[in-house]
Amino acid sequence: MKEISIVKADARSVIGAKLNQIALGYMRYPLAGSKEERIVNRTFVRLWKWSGNRFSHQYAFEAKMGEQTLGIITCYPIPLLNRLAWPTFKILFSYRKLALIGYNLLNLKDLYSTLTLKEGHDDEYHIGTLAALPESRGLGVGSMLMKFAEEQASLQGYHKCSLTVKKENHRALKLYERLGYQITGEINKPAFSLFRMAKKLEK
């Protein structure tokens, strides 16, 4: 079996946008302003290719075996993540325009939940999305990507990593707990409920 390596994500990757969607689950619909998969996919492909938004390849790393991408992780300091909120919305609006507004007017609780989401604190390095292809399960891809993100945090002078996870995602919750993450709070919104988790890194 070929060795798995972690590399900087490529804007041309055909799987990056798909993996971001897998990570987000139903939370991707208010962002794309649609539940039509064709539209959602095109929206996230655009976000992946363009720089300066939270779902960009710019902040992502890929786990690869040879030429095949098995999983991705996006990670950044919380202050940077907060600064990316408005540019991300501007890109979405410039692409989806009235359709984005129309969808969210009909789904106000989704819009409210997404816009008021506070994911972490300024002293944290945050894992925004993490996903692996179903066929890569059992290879330890998720754990490898998490460890890589923690190394990036340490290199940038951060001593704590954070993430959010949907309460119903028991598989992911077990993985994070096994890796040393602890629940530090809850985010309960009309459209979804999340656990906020964090881990102190060794200095």
UniProtKB/TrEMBL annotation:
Residues in N-acetyltransferase domain copies: 45-202
Keyword Acyltransferase listed: yes
CDD domains listed in its UniProt record: NAT_SF
Keyword presence, Acyltransferase: yes
Keywords associated with the record: Acyltransferase, Transferase
Gene Ontology MF terms: acyltransferase activity
Pfam families for this protein: Acetyltransf_1
EC number, UniProt record: 2.3.1.-
SUPFAM superfamilies for this protein: Acyl-CoA N-acyltransferases (Nat)
Protein name: GNAT family N-acetyltransferase
Species of the source: Paenibacillus puldeungensis
